[in-house]
Amino acid sequence: MKFILSESGNEAINLALVRSFAIARIVYKDGGTNESHVIAELDNDSDVTVKIFDSADADKNFSAAKAYLAELVKELNGGAK
């Protein structure tokens, strides 16, 4: 079994229950925060936030989330080959 920790560190996610990973761009109405969340979508139609990127730069957050997700998938697939 493989597990990953949620952003809060309070949940361990069993990878056998993960249906997919996604990046959600969060923009609040006040326009002050533009976060990117890497989420794990689970078999029971719920999701868990794996990592949040919340610098002042929305594009930088999205780029960092994409890089993090790519590295996570690479590691889960056995690392560099």
How would you explain this protein's 3D organization?
The protein is an alpha+beta fold and 81 residues long. Helices cover 23% and strands 40% of the residues. The two termini are 21 Å apart. The model has no long low-confidence stretch (mean pLDDT 89).
Measured distance between first and last alpha carbons: 21 Å
Largest beta-sheet characterization: 3 strands, antiparallel
Strand content: 35-45%
Gyration radius, in Å:
13 Å
Give the helix proportion (percent range): 10-25%
- Characterize the overall form: globular
Spans of 5+ residues with little confidence (pLDDT < 50)? none
- Mean of all residue-level pLDDT scores: 89
Structural class: alpha+beta
What's the total count of β strands? 5
Strand order, main sheet: write it out.
Answer: 3-4-5
List the helices and strands and how they pair.
Layout: E1 3-5, E2 12-14, E3 18-27, E4 34-42, E5 47-53, H1 58-76
Antiparallel strand pairs: 1-2, 3-4, 4-5
